[in-house]
Amino acid sequence: MSVSRRDFIKKNTLAGLALAAAGHLNPLFGAEADIQENAGNSVYFDGYTRIGPRKYKHPAERWSLGHLQEEMNHCSISGALVASTLSVNYDAMFSNLELSGQIRAHANLFAIWNVMPHQTGEFPDPVELGKQMKLHNVRAVSLFPHTNEWDWKDQASHELLNWLSKNKILTIVNAGEFGGMSPFNEFLTKYPSLPVYLINASWSDQRYVLPMVASHRNLHVGFDNFQINEGIEYFYRKGYIDQAIFGSNSPTMSAGAHRAYMDYADIPAEARAKATGGNLTRLLHGLKPPETKNNPNDDILMEAVKNGKPIPVPLIDMHMHMLNEGLNGAGWGYRMENGGPDKVFRLLKRLGYDGGGIMSWNGVVSHDAAGGNISAKKSLDLAPPGYWGLANFDPTHYSQEELKIMIPKMYEDKRFIGMKPYHYYGVEYQDPSYDIWWEYGNKRKFYGLLHNSRSDLFEAESLAKKYPDVRWVIAHAGGSYQMADMAIAAMKKFPNIYAEITLTPVHLGIIEYLVAGAGEDRILYGSDLPMRDPRQQLGWVIFSRLSLPVKKKILAGNALKVIEPCLADLPAYNRPKLTKG
C-alpha cells in the first residue's frame, strides 16, 4: 500500500508527540547544567555518521544501520549523530522523518536532518521546521546547497540560515557544497553566530582550514579526512581544542581508526574529553548518550590503544616519508606538522613502533630524486634502531650512464634495501629506462614499493614476472574496494607481490576483505606518515575484525618476510628487534 508524503509526515509527527508526552525529549535548547555536567566526561560521542544507499557502491562497502551499530559496539562508541543519504538524494523532509523513525528505538543515536529553503514548497518553513525538530529531538542539521541546487547567498535562503543562526543549531557542512574553501569562508563571516561543523576537509586543506579555525570561533572541525600529522596536539597548543570534534563517517569509514587518533592524543585528559564528546554535547545544548559503551571483548591491541599505551606486539611501518629536520612544509598543497625526524620518531615511540622503511618526500612528490636520497640518509642518521631506507632514482632527469654510477653508489650505504619509484617521474615502471635499477635490485633481493602510475596494476604484474627475486609491494591497496580487487588479483597471480594498506578513506572492512581475498600472509601495515598522521592508519588495523594472530602478521610478521632476504646485509642497528609479545 502506498503512503503519501503528507500521511507519512503526519504519522511521524504523531509519533513525535507521543514521545514528547512520555517525557523522553528535551527542549530544543538544553539546560546549562547538562552542558556543564558533560564537560568532564570522556565518552566517545560521534559527531558524524551516515547510513543509507548510495550510488556506485561496491558490494562489500558498509552502509546500513546494522553496520553502524556493529562498529560502534566494537569500538566502544557510546553515541552518534546519524545522517541519511536519502535525506539528500530523495525528498528531504520525508527522508528526515524516515531516519528519525528508523533510529527511534536506539537511545544513543540522534538524527541529523538535511534542511533547505522552503519557498519551492518542498520543505517546511523555519517555524514549522523548529516544531518538527523539537518533536523529534533533532539538534543538528546539514546543508547541501550544491547537491540540492539552492543558492545560500540568495535572499530566499536568508530566512532559514538566520533562523539556524539565531537558535544556534549545529550545522554540519562540506566546504565543497559552497563552491570551495573561499566561498565557505564567506559563509562563516556572514553567519558568525551559527555553530558550524566542517566534515570531509582533506589533510591537504590545512592552509585554508587552520586560518579559518583561528578567525571563526564558530567553526568546528572533524578529523575524518582531515588526518593532519599531530593535528589534535596542534589544536590544543593553539587554543582551538573547543573547536575539535570526533567524527568518523562510519560505517563507510572505520570508527576505530578515528578513535585511535584521539586515544593517542598527547594532550591533557580534560582536553581529550572535550574533543571526544564534550564539545559536541555543548553544541547540541546538553544532548549526550545515555550511557558509556565499552566492548568487553577487546583484544590486547584494542586495549592498548584505548589506554594510549604502546602497541604490545611487534610493529613495522612499510610506508614512511620524512621531511628535513625542523620542517612543517612540503611544497605543493602539503603541510606536515612536525614532519622531521625528531618529532616523528618521538610520536612513533609512543605508539610502540619497532621500525620500518623510510623514504624521502622531496625525492618523490617534489621529484628531486637525488636530493631525496640525501634527505633519507639524514633521517636514518637520526633514527632509533630498526629503521632502514628506500632510495629514489628518476630515469627522466638522469641518463642511463649517470644512473649506472648513481645506483651502486647509493646502495653502498647498506642501510638501504628498498626501491621507491614514483609516478610523478612520468615513466611507467616497466619502461626499459628503469631496467638498470630493477636488475640491480633483483640481484640483491631488494624490495620495491610501487604507487601505480596507471589505473590498473599492469606495472606490478609485469615487474613481478620479470624480476622474481624482488618483493613488489603495491602501495595504497586499501584505498578503495576497486583497488583491493586489483591487488587481490595480482597477488593470486604472483607470489612475490604484496599489498600495503594505507590511504585516507580507511574503509571499514577493507583490510578483512584483502585478507579474505589474498590470504593473511601478504598484507602489510603502512601509514604514509607524516603526510597523514599514523594513528588513524594504525587504529584501522587494530580495530579490524581480524583475529589477534592475523593482526600481528599485518603489523609486523609479513613485513619481516618482505625484508628477510635483505637482512644479512642490513646493519644490525637497522634490523627491527622484535622482542615484544
TrEMBL record:
PANTHER family: 2-AMINO-3-CARBOXYLMUCONATE-6-SEMIALDEHYDE DECARBOXYLASE. Gene3D superfamilies: Metal-dependent hydrolases. The lineage of its organism: Bacteria, Pseudomonadati, Bacteroidota, Cytophagia, Cytophagales. Keywords: Lyase. NCBIfam families: TAT_signal_seq (TIGR01409). GO terms for molecular function: carboxy-lyase activity; hydrolase activity. This is Twin-arginine translocation signal domain-containing protein. It comes from Dyadobacter frigoris. InterPro entries: ACMSD, Amidohydro-rel, Metal_Hydrolase, TAT_signal, TAT_signal_bac_arc. Signal peptide: none annotated. The keyword Amino-acid biosynthesis does not apply. PROSITE patterns: TAT (PS51318). Residues 450-562 form the Amidohydrolase-related domain. The keyword Lyase applies.
